[in-house]
């Protein structure tokens, strides 16, 4: 017998669920405790933001919203590793990554409130992509952006994120395959939160890991503890460095858990047990980093309280700004369709305005 | 008159699924979230417990994959019912439906039949935004080799599935997303199956033929009520089958009323409404007392905010206004 190829998938973890180190070789960036505190603070503010969003939805002030509860380490880990010139192509719940890149909570509220002006980021890079509600299409767009970087000789990387369910889609495979075939600077992060609405991970694929799909495409592949921000960040740093220097793309599988419903239109109690969710809470990414920071004397209960109060005030400000935004006039539905509206549609636009006035 | 009972559209779909699973061992249901979740619109809730994982199959998240597998299972002697969560996601399976299901009989010189039934929710009106509110039924109605049906009533939701399963060709069933909670009458027992060849006259009238289908039927009927108060007597026709069109019923109605107003939630350019208008112009031109009119959706991505979504899609008052215009009142 001869072997054509052999592979293995590394699993990366630095902190156990209690925040205790499971290995000694911590990455360089963890020595900068101020930076680690910054990451933690953003994880906390992301969670405060998320709680506020759900409250807004429950009180009828926001449309359907996709919660990021439990994904904070994965998302902040992704966002914090990227450079501003890189491109982020998210799906629809990676707020931790987006807030790090400068997206304002009010913009997220606007978007989920049904106003696409929320995607017109004021502080975040304009070259970042809009939320992608269709599943997986953003991966191909990211591969295309990576192709553009390569053609222009820019040292930039396109990062796309997708869920465990999305990794079953042809678009995902197409994206990583072209990245492998053409050596594109693409980092595809599968945020495996175990549930695609009601469909559990085991039904998505017979493969042992989702990371190994990257091997089939000729990319680097690694599985990380997605609730350990140090592991996520290290894998991202390595992947971005490789991609930036022309050594190829990476698939990172960040293993986490969707602690909330799929969206506010979902009720996960219909298909998964409370015991399972309770068990998942023991692996809470926020609690984990906090425990580690406290062990380093970099954080304490007083700081926690102060920061949470600051976050609350910040979110209140954001909510007010969102709620004060005026609804779009009827003609807005025509105004972002073409650069210049064709004559027949201009006529429909006038009719819509006339109908509106008639009421 | 035979006895009836009231159920919701959702219950009608569920009963039809259950009946099919009980009556034909070749029938199974597959799609995203059809099992534990009971379907995005709760049409299959309870069926997993009753029929088990072999016949109520949650699939990987890939429309092309599970529609393609459904086609394969149909060719292989089964009678799969494939639920695509919504028409919006069916775009991922268009190659399988249009390039495979619709053509395989032809490409195989008649060797291969594809008796698959593909169900999907369609339409706007639930504030689901541009990417989840499409009304693309006419794309499917455009394709030879497919039968496309749109149950607009509870009885049709209950009865069309079994008829579709008897069809040796691929059938696509469009369930308008705003209908699921509506209530209506179905027979109390006995045979539920309905014919899927003919359009139905839902309201007889003499002045104007209001031609529509799916989610727009109830709006058209409400408009007809308003118009009746203005002594405009509308005949409301429910197409039921979008391909092949029941031209005979449409034309006979227009020849009686001499006026036609078509209500279609699709975009006007290249719409089913356009096709119907063309057939009326081709075959009943000299019977018309006025040009054919259409009420369609504004040609924009369907907006999310309610006020804009309503402004973009056919509404009772826009239908009434168009009918008045047609009667020159």
UniProtKB/TrEMBL annotation, chain A:
Top-level taxon of origin: Bacteria
UniProt xrefs under Pfam families: E1_dh
EC number(s) on file: 1.2.4.1
Broad enzyme group: oxidoreductase
Protein's GO biological process: branched-chain amino acid catabolic process
Cofactor(s) required, per the database record: thiamine diphosphate
UniProt cross-references to InterPro entries, sorted A to Z: Alpha-ketoacid_DH_E1_comp, DH_E1, PdhA/BkdA, THDP-binding
SUPFAM superfamilies xref list: Thiamin diphosphate-binding fold (THDP-binding)
Keyword Oxidoreductase belongs to the record: yes
Key words of the record: Oxidoreductase, Pyruvate, Thiamine pyrophosphate
Gene3D superfamilies, alphabetized: 3.40.50.970
Residues annotated as domain Dehydrogenase E1 component: 40-320
Catalytic function, reaction form: N(6)-[(R)-lipoyl]-L-lysyl-[protein] + pyruvate + H(+) = N(6)-[(R)-S(8)-acetyldihydrolipoyl]-L-lysyl-[protein] + CO2
PANTHER family noted in UniProt: 2-OXOISOVALERATE DEHYDROGENASE SUBUNIT ALPHA, MITOCHONDRIAL (PTHR43380:SF1)
Subunit details: Heterodimer of an alpha and a beta chain.
Function in brief: The pyruvate dehydrogenase complex catalyzes the overall conversion of pyruvate to acetyl-CoA and CO(2). It contains multiple copies of three enzymatic components: pyruvate dehydrogenase (E1), dihydrolipoamide acetyltransferase (E2) and lipoamide dehydrogenase (E3).
Name used for this protein in its record: Pyruvate dehydrogenase E1 component subunit alpha
Organism this protein belongs to: Mizugakiibacter sediminis
Automatic annotation (TrEMBL), chain B:
Cofactor: thiamine diphosphate
Keywords: Oxidoreductase, Pyruvate, Thiamine pyrophosphate
GO molecular-function term, one example from the UniProt record: oxidoreductase activity
Residue ranges occupied by any Transketolase-like pyrimidine-binding domain in the UniProt entry: 7-182
Family annotation (Pfam families): Transket_pyr, Transketolase_C
InterPro entries the record matches: THDP-binding, Transketo_C/PFOR_II, Transketolase-like_Pyr-bd, Transketolase_C
SUPFAM superfamilies, sorted: Thiamin diphosphate-binding fold (THDP-binding) (SSF52518), TK C-terminal domain-like (SSF52922)
Role summary: The branched-chain alpha-keto dehydrogenase complex catalyzes the overall conversion of alpha-keto acids to acyl-CoA and CO(2). It contains multiple copies of three enzymatic components: branched-chain alpha-keto acid decarboxylase (E1), lipoamide acyltransferase (E2) and lipoamide dehydrogenase (E3).
Designated name of the protein: 2-oxoisovalerate dehydrogenase subunit beta
